[in-house]
Design goal:
By secondary structure, the protein is mainly α. The chain folds into 2 domains: 1-24 and 75-130 and 146-204, no CATH class; 215-264. It is built from 11 helices and 3 strands. Strands 1-2-3 form a 3-stranded antiparallel β-sheet, with no helix packed on it. The protein is globular and about 90 Å long.
Length: 266
Amino acid sequence: MPRAGQHYPGTYAAMRAWFPDDAACLDYLDWLRWPAGFRCPSCGCTTCWELSRGERRCTDCRRRVSRTAGTIFQDTRTPLTVWFAAAWYLTTQKNGISALGLKRVLGLGSYQTAWAMLHRYRTAMVRPGRERLNGNVEADESFFGGVKPGKRGEGQPAAYLNEFCLRFNRRHSRARGLLFYRLMQLALGAPPLTYRQLVVNPQPKRHRPIAPQGARSKISRMLYLLMNARTGDSLLVEPLSASIAAALRVDVATVFRGGFSSSALP
């Protein structure tokens, strides 16, 4: 049975003391991932060489193995100390924490970073091989998002249900740090997800429309400038009128009277 102070920190102050930097966080992840010692995921070898940046090289198959590879922490640019603090706030609060609240507490640069971090944790809260709920299920003081697709957090009630189930199953835990310990174990077994994979309907990349080419588009632009020119601005109106009249083969007076239609454009 995991014990506070031995397997996980019991308080927030202890959590800060346990994980003062990313190196301490990597050591903790290393212990959770390989409690009996290192084992290569490719060949099963138990011996390795220590490399820089927290990586290891298997002595048998020579494969480089990262402590965060294949987890929700893979390729993250956010410090692991921030990830651990987010997990603590998420698991120790009665109702969890919102992305906006996490952004304010941890001083994150954007709401998107906070939301993606919390949602990766929520997707990891599913215990493999768990028994599904059946019968009448009651959920008290819970909010599972909306039904409109295309917005962060909406249309994805399953992830919020995962969080609710984890809290419900651990509701009798004597130490809230035990929930933090379980979440970190599950996070190491969850696959990495990109931001676009987390969003229900990610918006496509915006492309600047290409302006039409040819004589017709050139005259259309001149007409737009002419219609938006100030009255009496002879420096702009007269040259535009002359250019349009020459292109349409009409006199300047016809241009001022509007005696032409778009069908007259070449």
